[in-house]
Specification:
Layout (H helix, E strand, L loop, with lengths): L2 H12 L4 H4 L2 H18 L11 H8 L3 H34 L3 H30 L6 H6 L2 H4 L4
Helix pairs in contact: 5-6
Length: about 150
């Protein structure tokens, strides 16, 4: 036995030369598969198992026509509130751009997009109650908005 072969034997016991062992290849593989499966589950929409009509939902929840009308008005007022909030946030974002605060403008613009999405949500709920139909599409909603109507043809 030469010097190098005996040195390799000694170092082989003291230092693990197999990269798959000290990198924990199996653990890395398991965590990658888990992250990918959770990401896939996150972006896969759930399908409804049972569909019900508007009248069935009203009967199930025991709602009166007056309660529906009041709730529809509330949703409309909340949507208007969020539209005003969106306009104020956009104005503030423009002001921060003019002052040179780009980070503040980006954050304010993101908040205005969130406020606009809330305005859409509440107005869409108002629209569904006023149409007395569950499961309306965004296209149905857009056809009833005067400003958007011209772009939906």
């Amino acid at each position: 036995m030469g010097f190098w072969s005996s040195t390799r034997k000694v170092l082989g016991h003291a230092v693990d030369l197999r990269a798959d062992r000290w990198l924990d290849y199996e653990g890395l593989k398991r965590s990658t598969v888990y992250i990918l499966s959770q990401t896939k589950k996150l972006f896969t929409p759930e399908t409804a198992h049972k569909s019900e009509s508007f009248e069935e939902a009203v009967d199930r929840l025991d709602l009166s026509p007056q309660a529906l009308s009041e709730q529809s008005d509330r949703y409309n007022y909340i949507a208007i509130f969020f539209l005003i909030t969106t306009a104020a946030l956009l104005a503030y974002a423009l002001l921060t751009v003019l002052l040179g605060n780009w980070l503040g403008a980006g954050i304010t613009f993101a908040l205005s997009l969130y406020s606009l999405s809330l305005a859409f949500r509440f107005h869409f709920w108002h629209f569904q109650i006023s149409q007395r139909k569950l499961g309306c599409s965004v296209r149905d909603w857009a056809r009833c908005i005067p400003l958007i109507k011209q772009f939906c043809h």
